[in-house]
Amino acid sequence: MTIPEFKKHWTSLGIGMVWLFILLWPLLGVKPEGLEVASTFNVWWRIAVGCSFILFLYQLNKIGTFNFISRPASAVAGNIKKVSSTVPVVVWFVVGIVCAGLIPQFAGRYAQDVAINCMIYVCLGLGLNIVVGLAGMLDLGYIAFYGIGAYTYALLSVQFQLSFWICLPISAAAAGFGAWLIGYCSMRMRGDYLAIVTLGFAEIVRMVFNNWMSLTNGPNGVTGIKAPGLYWFDFTNGMTLEHIWLKKLSLVYYVILLLVAFTIIAVYRLQHSRTGRAWEAIREDETAAEVMGVPTFYMKLLAYCSGACFGGMAGAFYAARMRFVSPESFTFLESAMVLSMVVLGGMGSIPGVILGALALIALPEIFRDFELYRMLVFGGVMTLMMLFRPQGILPPKRKMRAGKE
Amino acid sequence: MEYFFQQLINGITLGSVYALIALGYTMVYGIIQLINFAHGEFFAAGGYVGVIFMSYLVSQGAPAWVCLSGSLILAMAYCAMLAVAVEKVAYKPLRNSSRLSVLLSALGMSIFLQNGLMLTQGVYDKAYPTELAQGGFEMGNVMLSYMQIFIVSLTAFLLVALNVLVFKTRIGKAMRSTAQDKIMSALVGINSNRTISITFAIGAALAAAAGIMVGLYYGSVRYDMGFVPGIKAFAAAVLGGIGNITGAMIGGFIIGMVEIFAAGYISGEYKDVFAFVILIAVLYFRPSGIMGENVDDTRV
Fold first, then answer.
1. What pLDDT is attached to residue B299?
2. pTM, two decimal places
3. By the 8 A CB rule, do B221 and B215 touch?
4. Residue A185 sits at the chain B interface (C-beta within 8 Å)
């Protein structure tokens, strides 16, 4: 690093910090009682010190001060990668599922709750991964299908007392049908326009949930949804089949674990099928794919619908687990959350999406004291991630250009 | 009939607000082909900074016109600075990367700014000092308040000013040529980075003015008020042909009218749905909008 470069970094940091102070001051310092600077300064110097420290570390790293750590570390990481790639995927999958299956035996109620939440989002993330990661269509309204799934089970359960297991495929199909309706009119669009149209559709769906009082009970939501039930052997007097409600948290946990395992296998199989290859071809270059004989419209519609089906399944589980649904749970922010899981983890990579879901659901639980700043940090991380590592934490092995159009 | 005229007045008022926000979308999209998701947050931030300075000025006993114009100018300046900062941090480094990355970066910025507003200003509504412009003309049962006259005339002034800026000045010429071909205009000596920053600043300043108007009209602002008007304004920009300034104005007025009339004559509960339905219908049948020329296929 040269001296002018060194100076340039510090000058731009200085300008940025002055700029930040001016932006912060009206929000923190101007009160009807008067103009004060102290409270703004109080917040500002912390940010300034933090930023200077990060710049300092960055410059040291550029000069090569940390080489003595980073060189051996990258060598070790390379070795680990080499060893891990020799182990077949199935082994990792089985190990993961077994470890996850043991959690209720050892962890408390709170940890199980967080784990269930995480797994719902893993399902959602994997579903969205088909649309965004594989087919390269930006979908900002994914949460609508989660909502459709949840409401389908909720209404069927409350009105007709149908069992969870029957409703699970019905919910998936309902969400898939919704996606078909939406996709049929929007699949001609690409990129930004598709993003905004899907966002619009999701908002319409949410408003329907919110305003169709006679069906969905509006903002009050649907209550009295049944938990999943199961027939199980009862040995108290002879052997009979007993119907039990899975109300205990650890039993509900196994239901979602089953769903996650199913989703992972399904997405993996889809990704490595002819269809998956067609999706990836569309993601890389839609026109070229079409020329090569991929039916792009049909394939995009298929990706959209199959992604939505997984969302619908996760939604049905969500309704069964909370035993309550309301439109509040299906806002745009939720869509953004799921999308950022996919992007953060690495678009198109299954372990990446799982990691992304864990990072965005489990980490905030650990830092509970900073609850207020959660969404602020979330937005900031999303931007920073795009600036410094747009391919995500665990990018897929097969190279992608991430939907360059 | 009176009801119709009342709705017409309300529609024009609301439409002018949407037109102002839509201009920011359309200018930014025209120049760097980016849907600036954070634009709705500029609108909200403008409303907040406006109420902050206005409460301060009112408490200092300044006359009404000083309160209004002072807070308007300060809020517009503030949002222009905010927009330049956002552009420098979140968009400029991504100028040559994929569309998806920029869009997600914009989404992140939007969430960041919204929560920044919430943390600094609280989750509750903040009330505007509405005693500044009360009353109005009454013709039969049709009510035309001073506030509505203020909003519409200020919008008209800003629109004319913007048109002069874009079509008559050097910087407007630079903006237009950068929008048409960034590389060629850089070759003839236009600083495209500076032009893009100025475009962001102007768009955000207009959004800030809209934020103050909405705050005055409805009497309060909220930290998350930027999202829905932002989307509606985007619908307006698309309706008019994105990248087209005249189109954005017309689109804004159409969306405002449709919303008010739909709320008045069809259903108040579903009024937000209509803007989205128009957006989808326009994108489906005429992606280039009313005023736009045909966009080439890759851009759609």
1. 39
2. 0.88
3. yes
4. yes
